């Protein structure tokens, strides 16, 4: 039986002071996510709050990043409109990665077996050349291999090998990229 009042943040480090967290939320919700904010400014804002961002990165509007200081993005990566990087733990996106519209990368979860529903968080890694398609979900602790594809609308709960397509029907090998 769940005892939700027993839940605590024990063992979870947000990584910055409450002031920095509040400042990020204010910036994210007033400027960063806005349609009028230039993509270059979004990259600059993430860097200012501690993210490691490569060259040529494109971040569209309505993207949400919980904690920028827990985000690493490689060169020439795209993050599409409405994507949500729920990074209670580190999220690492390699070079030439595409995270499409409204995709969710969720590093947080709860231990459903524990009465206090404690956190069971883990990082996410998306390796070079991978594609997280529209409205796909990648869950805590998962690594998406090089040039792998997580199909639109699917949920990935375990590692996906390189050059593999994950669909609702299973996994299929992909041709080697040119």
SSE order, one letter for each helix or strand: HHEEEEEEEEEEEEEEEEE
- Classify the helix fraction into a percent range: 10-25%
Question: How are strands sequenced across the largest beta sheet?
Answer: 2-5-8-11-14-16-17
The major sheet is characterized as: 7 strands, mixed
What's the overall average pLDDT, rounded?
95
Low-pLDDT stretches? none
Number of helices: 2
Distance between the termini: 53 Å
Category by helix and strand content: alpha/beta
Q: How many strand units?
A: 17
Beta-strand residue fraction: 15-25%
The gross shape turns out to be globular
Radius of gyration, Cα only, in angstroms? 17 Å
Written account of the structure:
The chain is α/β, with parallel strands linked by helices. It is built from two helices and 17 strands. The protein has helices at residues 18-32, 39-48, and strands at 52-53, 58-59, 64-65, 71-73, 78-79, 84-86, 91-93, 98-99, 104-106, 124-126, 131-132, 137-139, 143-144, 149-150, 155-156, 164-167, 170-173. The strands form three sheets. Strands 2-5-8-11-14-16-17 form a seven-stranded mixed sheet. A five-stranded parallel sheet has the order 1-4-7-10-13, covered by helices on one side. The radius of gyration is 17 Å and the shape is globular. The termini are far apart.
